[in-house]
Amino acid sequence: MSDLPDDLFLILPDGSEDSPAAPTLDYSRNPVVTVTFAGNRLTRNAARAYQKEFGIGVMDWRMLVVLTRDPGCSVGQAANLTGIDKAAVSRALQRMEKTGLVRAEVRGGDERRKSWFLTEAGHALHAQMLPRALERQRDLLKGFSPEELTAFTGYLQRFLDNMADQADTPE
Predict the structure, then answer these.
(1) In sequence order, what are the beta bridge partners of 24?
(2) Tens-place pLDDT, residues 124-154
(3) How far apart are CA 156 and CA 35, in angstroms?
Protein backbone atom coordinates (compact mmCIF):
# COMPACT_ATOMS: atom_id res chain seq x y z
CA MET A 1 0.00 0.00 0.00
CA SER A 2 1.27 3.47 -0.89
CA ASP A 3 1.64 6.41 1.49
CA LEU A 4 0.85 8.88 -1.31
CA PRO A 5 -2.21 11.05 -0.56
CA ASP A 6 -5.08 11.05 -3.04
CA ASP A 7 -4.95 14.84 -3.45
CA LEU A 8 -1.68 14.43 -5.36
CA PHE A 9 -3.71 12.90 -8.19
CA LEU A 10 -7.00 14.78 -8.06
CA ILE A 11 -8.42 17.99 -9.41
CA LEU A 12 -11.20 19.47 -7.30
CA PRO A 13 -14.13 21.70 -8.28
CA ASP A 14 -13.18 25.33 -7.67
CA GLY A 15 -15.94 27.17 -9.51
CA SER A 16 -13.74 28.19 -12.44
CA GLU A 17 -14.73 27.67 -16.07
CA ASP A 18 -12.29 24.73 -16.41
CA SER A 19 -13.28 23.20 -13.10
CA PRO A 20 -14.64 19.65 -13.06
CA ALA A 21 -18.16 18.98 -11.80
CA ALA A 22 -16.80 16.63 -9.14
CA PRO A 23 -13.38 15.51 -7.88
CA THR A 24 -11.63 13.50 -10.58
CA LEU A 25 -8.17 12.57 -11.85
CA ASP A 26 -5.94 15.48 -12.79
CA TYR A 27 -4.40 14.92 -16.22
CA SER A 28 -1.32 17.02 -15.57
CA ARG A 29 -0.30 15.78 -12.11
CA ASN A 30 -1.14 12.10 -12.37
CA PRO A 31 1.70 9.86 -13.56
CA VAL A 32 -0.64 6.93 -14.26
CA VAL A 33 -2.77 9.10 -16.56
CA THR A 34 0.38 10.54 -18.14
CA VAL A 35 1.86 7.09 -18.80
CA THR A 36 -1.45 5.92 -20.27
CA PHE A 37 -1.77 8.95 -22.55
CA ALA A 38 1.90 8.69 -23.56
CA GLY A 39 1.56 4.98 -24.33
CA ASN A 40 -1.56 5.54 -26.41
CA ARG A 41 0.03 8.38 -28.36
CA LEU A 42 3.31 6.48 -28.79
CA THR A 43 1.51 3.43 -30.18
CA ARG A 44 -0.71 5.51 -32.50
CA ASN A 45 2.22 7.51 -33.88
CA ALA A 46 4.40 4.42 -34.33
CA ALA A 47 1.55 2.58 -36.04
CA ARG A 48 1.12 5.41 -38.54
CA ALA A 49 4.84 5.75 -39.20
CA TYR A 50 5.52 2.02 -39.60
CA GLN A 51 2.43 1.47 -41.76
CA LYS A 52 3.42 4.35 -44.04
CA GLU A 53 7.13 3.49 -44.24
CA PHE A 54 7.12 -0.31 -44.09
CA GLY A 55 3.55 -1.49 -44.71
CA ILE A 56 3.13 -3.11 -41.29
CA GLY A 57 1.62 -2.02 -38.00
CA VAL A 58 3.22 -1.55 -34.63
CA MET A 59 2.01 -4.97 -33.43
CA ASP A 60 3.91 -6.64 -36.27
CA TRP A 61 7.01 -4.59 -35.40
CA ARG A 62 6.73 -5.77 -31.80
CA MET A 63 6.59 -9.39 -32.97
CA LEU A 64 9.64 -8.83 -35.21
CA VAL A 65 11.53 -7.59 -32.15
CA VAL A 66 10.30 -10.42 -29.90
CA LEU A 67 11.21 -13.12 -32.41
CA THR A 68 14.61 -11.56 -33.05
CA ARG A 69 15.33 -11.58 -29.31
CA ASP A 70 13.60 -14.88 -28.49
CA PRO A 71 13.36 -17.12 -31.57
CA GLY A 72 11.06 -20.08 -31.07
CA CYS A 73 8.88 -18.50 -28.42
CA SER A 74 5.23 -19.38 -28.09
CA VAL A 75 2.22 -17.06 -28.31
CA GLY A 76 2.01 -17.13 -24.50
CA GLN A 77 5.67 -16.20 -24.09
CA ALA A 78 5.34 -13.35 -26.62
CA ALA A 79 2.21 -12.12 -24.82
CA ASN A 80 4.01 -12.14 -21.46
CA LEU A 81 7.04 -10.32 -22.85
CA THR A 82 4.99 -7.56 -24.49
CA GLY A 83 2.12 -7.28 -22.03
CA ILE A 84 -0.31 -7.81 -24.90
CA ASP A 85 -3.12 -10.36 -24.72
CA LYS A 86 -2.61 -13.77 -26.32
CA ALA A 87 -5.42 -13.31 -28.83
CA ALA A 88 -3.84 -10.15 -30.28
CA VAL A 89 -0.41 -11.80 -30.42
CA SER A 90 -1.89 -14.87 -32.11
CA ARG A 91 -3.71 -12.75 -34.72
CA ALA A 92 -0.52 -10.80 -35.46
CA LEU A 93 1.55 -13.95 -35.89
CA GLN A 94 -1.06 -15.56 -38.12
CA ARG A 95 -1.22 -12.41 -40.27
CA MET A 96 2.58 -12.30 -40.45
CA GLU A 97 2.71 -15.98 -41.37
CA LYS A 98 0.43 -15.28 -44.34
CA THR A 99 2.74 -12.51 -45.52
CA GLY A 100 5.84 -14.70 -45.14
CA LEU A 101 7.47 -12.85 -42.25
CA VAL A 102 7.20 -15.66 -39.67
CA ARG A 103 6.84 -19.43 -39.61
CA ALA A 104 5.53 -21.76 -36.96
CA GLU A 105 6.76 -25.17 -35.84
CA VAL A 106 4.32 -27.45 -34.06
CA ARG A 107 5.63 -28.66 -30.69
CA GLY A 108 4.93 -32.13 -29.38
CA GLY A 109 2.48 -33.00 -32.15
CA ASP A 110 -0.08 -30.57 -30.71
CA GLU A 111 -1.25 -28.10 -33.38
CA ARG A 112 -2.17 -25.63 -30.64
CA ARG A 113 1.41 -25.50 -29.33
CA LYS A 114 3.72 -23.72 -31.73
CA SER A 115 7.14 -22.16 -31.66
CA TRP A 116 7.44 -19.05 -33.82
CA PHE A 117 10.44 -17.96 -35.87
CA LEU A 118 11.25 -15.17 -38.29
CA THR A 119 11.73 -16.10 -41.92
CA GLU A 120 14.48 -14.56 -44.06
CA ALA A 121 11.96 -11.89 -45.08
CA GLY A 122 11.15 -11.26 -41.41
CA HIS A 123 14.83 -10.86 -40.53
CA ALA A 124 15.32 -8.53 -43.50
CA LEU A 125 12.34 -6.36 -42.52
CA HIS A 126 13.56 -6.17 -38.92
CA ALA A 127 17.01 -5.09 -40.13
CA GLN A 128 15.40 -2.47 -42.38
CA MET A 129 13.14 -1.10 -39.62
CA LEU A 130 15.62 -1.09 -36.73
CA PRO A 131 17.48 2.11 -37.77
CA ARG A 132 14.15 3.94 -38.08
CA ALA A 133 12.99 2.66 -34.67
CA LEU A 134 16.25 3.85 -33.11
CA GLU A 135 15.83 7.24 -34.79
CA ARG A 136 12.29 7.52 -33.38
CA GLN A 137 13.61 6.66 -29.91
CA ARG A 138 16.35 9.27 -30.13
CA ASP A 139 13.78 11.89 -31.17
CA LEU A 140 11.45 10.94 -28.31
CA LEU A 141 14.26 11.01 -25.74
CA LYS A 142 15.85 14.23 -26.95
CA GLY A 143 17.17 16.30 -24.07
CA PHE A 144 17.60 13.37 -21.66
CA SER A 145 21.07 12.67 -20.34
CA PRO A 146 22.20 9.03 -20.13
CA GLU A 147 21.79 9.23 -16.34
CA GLU A 148 18.25 10.63 -16.66
CA LEU A 149 17.38 7.94 -19.16
CA THR A 150 18.65 5.25 -16.77
CA ALA A 151 16.61 6.73 -13.92
CA PHE A 152 13.50 7.13 -16.11
CA THR A 153 13.75 3.54 -17.32
CA GLY A 154 14.18 2.38 -13.72
CA TYR A 155 11.06 4.27 -12.65
CA LEU A 156 9.06 2.77 -15.49
CA GLN A 157 10.34 -0.72 -14.64
CA ARG A 158 9.32 -0.25 -11.01
CA PHE A 159 5.91 0.90 -12.26
CA LEU A 160 5.64 -2.27 -14.38
CA ASP A 161 6.73 -4.41 -11.43
CA ASN A 162 4.01 -2.80 -9.30
CA MET A 163 1.46 -3.60 -12.02
CA ALA A 164 2.57 -7.22 -12.03
CA ASP A 165 2.16 -7.34 -8.23
CA GLN A 166 -1.29 -5.76 -8.56
CA ALA A 167 -2.32 -8.28 -11.23
CA ASP A 168 -1.60 -11.11 -8.79
CA THR A 169 -3.86 -9.57 -6.12
CA PRO A 170 -7.43 -10.90 -6.09
CA GLU A 171 -10.13 -8.24 -6.35
Answers:
(1) 11
(2) 999 999 999 999 999 999 999 999 999 999 9
(3) 9
